[in-house]
Amino acid sequence: MEFEGYRRWAATALLGVFTGAVIVLGYRAYRAREVPGPPPAAPAGDEGTGTPAGGTVGWPRREPPAPVGPAPGSEAPRQGPEGREALAVHVAGAVAAPGVHRLEPGARVADAVAAAQPLPEALPGALNLARPVADGDKIFVPSRRDLAPGANLPPEALGADHGPAAAPPRAGAGGREAGVAGTAPGRVNLNTAGVEELMTLPGIGRVLAERIVEHRRRVERFRSIEDLLQVPGIGASRLEQLRPYLTL
Fold first, then answer.
1. Phi, psi angle pair for 92, to nearest 5°
2. For residues 159 and 187, what is the distance between their CA atoms, to the nearest angstrom?
3. Which residue(s) pair with 132 in the sheet?
4. Where is the Helix-hairpin-helix DNA-binding motif class domain positioned along the sequence (predicted)?
5. Residue 199 contacts by C-beta under 8 Å, 6 or more apart in sequence?
6. Are 235 and 229 in contact (CB under 8 A)?
7. Tens digits of residue pLDDT in 45-96
8. pLDDT class for 234, splitting at 50, 70, 90?
9. Residues of CATH 3.10.20 domain(s) within the chain?
């Protein structure tokens, strides 16, 4: 009897322990469903002030400012390769395209003459082709007829502020050669002209021009126009033909 009572007591105790364990486990499961999880992580590479992928602090993206251009309806002046404005030069005379031509800064008289396309009868060698031009210059390209003895130069051979065409200037006047604004077509300087410039004179070809240069080299300089008579091939009649175009 006593043993039977002990078995009943043990069974009851085990049942109570089992029931308590079930209750505790159920309570923990219930609490686990009510506790919220950790907040979701920000997506990698998100643009903003947070930390992007890679672990470095990012900065907000800023759009570049829009370029500032000229005001509507305005036009920027034409400029050369270095940002300087182009030169406006008026070319007249024996050219196929007279008028105002736009030249790059640093251009020479030769560039202006080439832009205006000299005619076959033009004598661009009468000009100082190496002289730099300035904005507003007027260049007159003479022809053989313009430089003939007794010929009257057209008014446009001079600058805008000058009167009727004058005689060729004296040697060294103004330091500029023929056809530049403010001067009349000039004479060829026997003591400085090269072969090509001497060939612009009437009746002077390459052979005579080379003889003149060679004679000048031997005597150092011409002291008078009449010294040309010492050059083989130049006589008195040719000297008189050349005299209106020569200076020292």
1. -135, 175
2. 18
3. 108
4. 196-215, 226-245
5. 125, 205, 206, 209
6. yes
7. 444 444 444 444 455 565 655 555 555 544 445 555 555 789 999 999 899 9
8. confident
9. 83-186
pTM above 0.85, yes or no: no
Name the CATH topology of 83-186.
Answer: Ubiquitin-like (UB roll) (3.10.20)
DSSP string, 86-122: PEEEEEEESBSS-EEEEE-TT-BHHHHHHHH-B-TTB
Q: What is the pLDDT of residues 19-45, one digit of tens each?
A: 877 787 777 777 777 655 555 555 554
| CA atoms of 118 and 93, how far apart (whole Å) | 9
Q: Does the domain formed by 195-247 have CATH 1.10.150.320?
A: yes
Q: Which tens digits make up the pLDDT trace of 181-229?
A: 333 346 789 998 898 888 888 778 888 899 999 999 999 899 999 999 9
d(CA 151, CA 190): 22
**Domain(s) of CATH 1.10.150.320: residues in the chain:** 195-247
Question: Token pair of 194, please?
Answer: 């090269």
DSSP state of 64: P
Predicted local confidence at residue 105, as pLDDT? 92
Per the structure block, which two tokens stand in for 217? 């080299």
Strand pairing report for 246-247 and 99-103: unpaired
Q: Are residues 176 and 131 in contact, defined by beta-carbon separation less than 8 angstroms?
A: yes
AA letter at 164? P
Q: For residues 126 and 201, what is the distance between their CA atoms, to the nearest angstrom?
A: 8
Residue 137 token pair: 């210059």
Using DSSP's 3-state secondary structure scheme, residue 140 falls into strand
